[in-house]
Amino acid sequence: MAIFTDPVREFADFGPGDEEWLHLLVGDWQLVADLAFADLVLWHPAPGGTYVALAHVRPSTSHTVFHTDFVGERIRRDLKPLVEEAWTTGQIQRADEDHWTRDAAMRIEAVPMVRNGRTLAVVTSHMDLSSSRLPSRLEMTYRQCAQDLLKMGTQGLWPDFATPTGSRRGAPRVGDGLIRLDAEGIVQYASPNGVSAYRRLGGVSDLEGKSLAEVTTGLLKDRRMVDESLPLVVTGRMPWRTEVESRGVTLSLRAIPLRDGSRRYGALVLCRDVTELRRREMELVSKDATIREIHHRVKNNLQTVAALLRMQSRRMGSEEGKLGLEQAMRRVATIALVHDTLSQGLTQNVDFDELIDRQFRLAAEVASPGQVVRTERTGSFGGLPNELATPLSLVINELVANAVEHGLGERNGTVALGAERRTDPDGSVWLRVTVSDDGVGLPPEPRSEGLGLQIVRTLVTSELAGTIAWEKAVGGGTRVVLDLPVAAA
């Protein structure tokens, strides 16, 4: 995704940290849009004496007043004077009269975002006025909170670099529950969803007029497990996040101190019941551990099967039977190696380069008991889906063994493995795998395929949905080319 400041970076006078501050603003301004029941647009001066829209956010608490996306477009002529005045004065500017269009009636404000005494951008707020009903206490409180945050933006106090930017699921939003505190941490207002969240935590019927810190700590049964950041969050002193758990219910809390210069006059605390989210996360962790354990046990079982085949082959009197058991043992060991790799990770993809490095050398050594075979590998397979790792490992194992046994015969030589990814114009990603040797080359007359090559052809065409071709290698020998479709990373 393109960075929204790219269009103005060449001529913008950004100082150290300015661009990061704007990114922090856009990453968190959904909060203000929801509180203000308004669309927010970020503007920056552009060459030619105009302004360009860098970003736009719509409220989730109300319907939007802009149904078309105009990011990247120049500012309208009627809006430019208001934005220009805000940029020049560094003060919030309100339109003298409401703006009426064919689709909606809007109240517009322009708020300069100032950092270190310099205006970096202007945020315009566009609030829909089509609803004629009187605003409720909740709406009035929300809008006041939005005004407080925007005013802090004119002083460079919001957004705060101390705000956590982690991506953990369950971060509270305005609609989940909002509590407004005064400077002493006393609840001035709690939204219905905020009261409900605390009621689920422990039976609190009302929050207003009470100390949120005392209410929260009074609900905790085991205070030894309390997050150290909890007191600073529930008193609104630091812009942090924390979680509190009681009676099987987990609340996610986020505090936003309200400041005017160096004076802290209150705070907003967002709360959200994340009990179900955390329960599902624990289930996923448990399932991941179970899957890893299954792969580990399958690997152990396959290694046991390979050991039994090895013991049986030593008892075989027939050389043909012994060779067949040894080949079966090698195939089982290859599958076991894939399960060993899968048991060590949680992702849906396998680092195939790490896996194939071990297998490639092992396959060449096992197939060449009486000669010296060098191995060379070029290119990168990258991450491959789990369902492709096992069949591709078996195919490479069989092709390497075939190159040693039939390509080189009893001669010393080199077996090379190459991998190359490409992306077609239609966006599909392909992997080309080559296995080559410097041996005797292709036979003049086609011969019947053995079990190994039958396995290869079946796996390539069915499991891997690819193609396979044999050709003469440059400089002598044989080259096998696989073309396989893979999912884009």
Automatic annotation (TrEMBL):
What are its E.C. numbers?
A: 2.7.13.3
Q: Which domain of life is it from?
A: Bacteria
Q: Which UniProt keywords apply?
A: ATP-binding, Kinase, Nucleotide-binding, Phosphoprotein, Transferase, Two-component regulatory system
Question: Histidine kinase domain location, by residue?
Answer: 293-488
Kindly give the SUPFAM superfamilies that the UniProt entry links to this protein.
Answer: ATPase domain of HSP90 chaperone/DNA topoisomerase II/histidine kinase, PYP-like sensor domain (PAS domain)
**InterPro entries, alphabetically?**
H_kinase_PdtaS_GAF_sf (IPR038424), HATPase_C_sf (IPR036890), HATPase_dom (IPR003594), His_kinase_dom (IPR005467), PAS (IPR000014), PAS-like_dom_sf (IPR035965), PAS_4 (IPR013656), PdtaS_GAF (IPR022066)
| UniProt catalytic activity | ATP + protein L-histidine = ADP + protein N-phospho-L-histidine
Molecular function via GO: protein histidine kinase activity
Instruction: Quote the CDD domains the UniProt record gives.
Output: PAS
Protein name in UniProt? histidine kinase
Question: What is the native source organism of this protein?
Answer: Arthrobacter halodurans
- Tell me the classification of the organism that encodes this protein: Bacteria, Bacillati, Actinomycetota, Actinomycetes, Micrococcales
